[in-house]
Amino acid sequence: MADQTVPFLDLVAQHAPIRDDILSAWTQILDSCGFVGGQHVEGFEQAFAQACECRHAVTVSSGTDALLLALKALGVGPGDEVILPANTFLATAEAVSHAGATPVFADVVHGTWNIDSEKISELVTPRTRGVIGVHLYGQPFDVDAVQSVCDRHGIWLMEDSAQGHLAEYKGRRTGGLARIAAFSFYPGKNLGAPGEGGAVTTNDSALAEHVRKLRDHGQREKYVHELVGFNCRLPSLMAAALGIKLPHLSAWNAARRRNAALYKKQLQNAPGILLPTELDCCTGVYHLFVVHVDRRDQVFEQLKKAGVGVGIHYKRPCHLQPCYSDLGHGPGAFPVAEYNASHCLSLPMYAELSEDQVEYVCERLVEAVRS
């Protein structure tokens, strides 16, 4: 196959068919000056809650704010500890820190790279309030196994579903699998805004009401501040675009799954390439398609030279980040997370990716691993 360029992500292709619909909605908002709250925000919240098969969705200004406000609504504060995987984007741990608590890292399962339920009990102390499980790369973590541990210790479970939009665990969609969940609508997500955005989902009406107050300066009635809150509202322009994109999400996810199947078919017999694992009880949405290879950095550079957009998610696990050096974890503390960090390679993955593009990426990857 002739040399070509395959971008890591192509948002232009995603937006092209719905561009006029988004611009029309934005024109209506500009004309009405309804920039904060209103029908677009409320309509999207209702639709997203329904899509997640849960009672409440409360939009906020980012995925990180969704995590923080969910933790605050659960009463997390100074002196508390929250257990989370060492292998996640730093925002999961950051939110715990900003809530005033201490992140306690757990190792992950080789293959899914999600939190290892068997490691949690040994980390529980009298200060532990709960566990955050991450649906990393769009693959649900083993919710029932983690929930069982949480129930045994009398602590709650939260979903970090920033990468797991409409993924399924045992026939149930992410967002309603635990006490509360946090979503990100960062532009590159499966459901991405043309800017920042996030949401908290829950079946608990009291928690949802608490988050609604927290995101809007602690008020539900104007100028009556029941809580010391934040300014974390989702702009109407973002909500309008998300509302237009949401009906396409299931089809986009299905296309991602088809492309993941193509990758697996092309690479299943390729030596030196470890393919992602999907639990039998799960339907992943492949926010990222992550393989594992030796000499990862050299393979990365060779693919870039061949015109293949690649990424690394994530090059350094949370416990080895400089900002958490005070927790005292050194290399070797969480070996599976560290293996992922040194071997993971994210290949192009989006709904509009063609079969020819997948074939080209696979050919170049096999060449790079062999060389």
What is the CA-based Rg, rounded? 21 Å
CATH architecture of the largest domain, by name, is 3-Layer(aba) Sandwich
Number of structural units classed as domains: 2
Taken as a percent bin, the fraction of beta residues is 15-25%
Biggest sheet overview = 7 strands, mixed
At the third CATH level, what is the topology name of the largest domain? Answer: Aspartate Aminotransferase, domain 2
Overview of this structure, please?
With 371 residues, the chain is of the alpha/beta class. The chain folds into 2 domains: 235 residues, 3-Layer(aba) Sandwich (Aspartate Aminotransferase, domain 2); 121 residues, Aspartate Aminotransferase, domain 1 (Alpha-Beta Complex). It contains 12 helices and 14 strands. The strands form 4 sheets. A 7-stranded mixed beta sheet has the order 1-9-8-5-4-2-3, with helices on both faces. Helix 3 runs parallel beside helix 8, helix 4 packs across helix 7 and helix 10 packs across helix 12. The model has no long low-confidence stretch (mean pLDDT 97).
List the helices and strands and how they pair.
Elements: H1 11-15, H2 19-32, H3 39-51, E1 56-60, H4 63-73, E2 81-85, H5 91-98, E3 102-106, E4 128-134, H6 143-153, E5 156-160, E6 168-169, E7 172-173, E8 180-184, E9 198-202, H7 205-215, E10 219-221, E11 224-225, H8 236-245, H9 249-267, E12 282-283, E13 289-292, H10 296-305, H11 335-343, E14 344-347, H12 355-370
